[in-house]
Amino acid sequence: MVLSDGRTDIGCSRTSNEDAFAVEPELGLYLLADGMGGAQAGERASGIAIETIVRCVREAAPSRTMEGLLGAIRVANQEVMAQAAANLAYQGMGTTVVALLVDLPAAHVASVGDSRVYLWRRSQLERVTSDQTWVNEVGRSLGLSEEQIHSHPFRNVLTMAVGSREGIEVHSHELTLEAGDRLLLSSDGLHGVVPETGLRQALGASKSLSETTAELIQMARRAGGPDNITAVVVEVQ
Length: 237
What we know:
This protein is an alpha+beta fold. The chain is built from seven helices and ten strands.
């Protein structure tokens, strides 16, 4: 059995929430998107991406494949680009996307941008996804340390986003889940301010999923909450 909970928060500094998420247990689908763009464009981009991916996966049901998930993200990319082209207010908008499609014991993970999936298993925390950012893809090759990467002024500069261009690169990962596993989908408003020790502490506590997502949000707010904060936690029982 798979349990899940999701929660989003505007944070302590922003005037709007450009994050969006979806929890669709009947589809085995869990999504998070962190939008970007002027005015309400970021909020629009993340909403379009979430709605489009859910629709595509629902249309493909009961099939749950990596190919279908990647295809849904590419359809979302086309939809965000089309709406940006049709409305001057939305030009330049884009969004990260991280998606989890569960078909036990398999889990298909796909990501664009710097939203993340973590796997908590037997008290160990593993980052599943890889950030598509300048510091991760270029800075590491230049020899930047983890400390320098975390504080670098380009740390939030994305090299890829849904809606940014044709033919986006979508990262994919296949997992085999075990009973007791917890998976965390997070926006950078969470993992960018809460260290992995904090994430590990929250995921490993003997609390309900709703208490866990609430604690993750509060951790980010106590750290200053400079960005929108979103957490989705999925647990295999």
